[in-house]
Design a protein that fits this description.
Elements (H helix, E strand, L loop, with lengths): L1 E5 L4 E8 L2 E4 L3 H14 L3 E6 L1 H9 L1 H9 L2 E4 L2 H9 L10 H15 L2 E6 L2 H14 L4 E6 L8 H11 L3 E5 L5 H12 L3 E4 L3 H5 L8 H5 L3 H8 L4 H4 L1 H16 L1
Parallel strand pairs: 4-5, 4-9, 6-7, 6-8, 8-9
Antiparallel strand pairs: 1-2, 2-3
Helix pairs in contact: 1-5, 2-3, 2-13, 3-8
């Protein structure tokens, strides 16, 4: 079994390799424990919540693959990633969905007095997400909120505001192309112990979009629900069959 070393005394994390991406085999509880140690270390850690679309993007883009390689922890967010690990004979403990991990970190933050910063999405979405999270987790101080609509010229000011706020947790919700590479590029400057890309989570938390019903999540059909709700996702979703074909090819070659 291979391991990756998590900086800052969080020790060894068992990983499985999926098309060259090292995905954690820990369950949700183990993941939260490791990230608690990451917060205690004070050193920056990038957490990637990987799904098949992101893994395919990494195979097609050097910048995305570099972010994957340099991330301190990659969790199996998508049902397709869990399936791939099973197919390749080195399964993960369970799906660790980014949306659920965000809430589990907030719960742990309630007990330990952590602070959080929300970066990304549209202004009204991120403000409403912050309001609802603050209400749900009153002991976690939300020390900053910023929408995701900024480019290269504003980077320095955005980073400086986050550095000044000194959060324990930084949740970043930007578009799929920029989210992970941006975190990878600036994580040392940001200096936040746990920096996690959360995709569309603020949209769900704010009530702008709905999450798939639990039975669909259990049947691994969350992707289908999202596609039905947002048909504009279809071009991105075309990565799913390519991912499945690639995994089957690798399995055949190694079988």
């Amino acid at each position: 079994m291979s391991h990756t070393h998590l900086e800052g005394g969080a020790g060894q994390v068992p990983v499985t390799s999926i098309l060259g991406v090292q995905v954690s085999k820990l369950d949700m509880r183990g993941t939260v424990e490791v990230l608690e140690q990451a917060v205690a270390s004070g050193r920056p850690h990038q957490i990637i919540t990987a799904n098949p679309i992101m893994i395919m993007a990494a195979l097609e883009s050097e910048e995305n693959m570099r972010a994957m390689r340099e991330a301190e922890l990659i969790v199996p967010d998508g049902a397709g990633v869990v399936w791939a690990a099973e197919q390749l004979g080195d399964p993960v403990a369970e799906r660790v969905a980014g949306f659920d991990l965000l809430h589990e970190l907030m719960k742990r933050g309630e007990q330990l007095g952590w602070t959080a910063y929300l970066l990304g999405a549209a202004e009204e979405v991120v403000q409403e997400a912050a309001r609802r999270l603050q209400k749900q987790y009153p002991k976690v101080r939300i020390v900053g909120v910023r929408n995701g609509y900024f480019g290269e010229p504003e980077n320095a000011a955005v980073i400086e505001a986050i550095r000044q706020a000194k959060p324990d947790l930084l949740f970043v919700a930007r578009d799929a192309k920029t989210q992970e590479p941006w975190i990878a590029r600036y994580k040392q400057e940001l200096g936040v112990p746990v920096i996690m890309g959360v995709g569309g989570s603020f949209d769900v938390i704010s009530g702008k979009t709905k999450r798939a019903p639990v039975f669909m999540q259990k049947m691994r059909l969350e992707w289908f629900y999202r596609l039905a709700s947002e048909p504009s996702r279809l071009p991105r979703m075309m990565a799913l069959p390519r991912f499945m074909r690639t995994i089957k090819k690798v399995k055949k070659n190694h079988g």
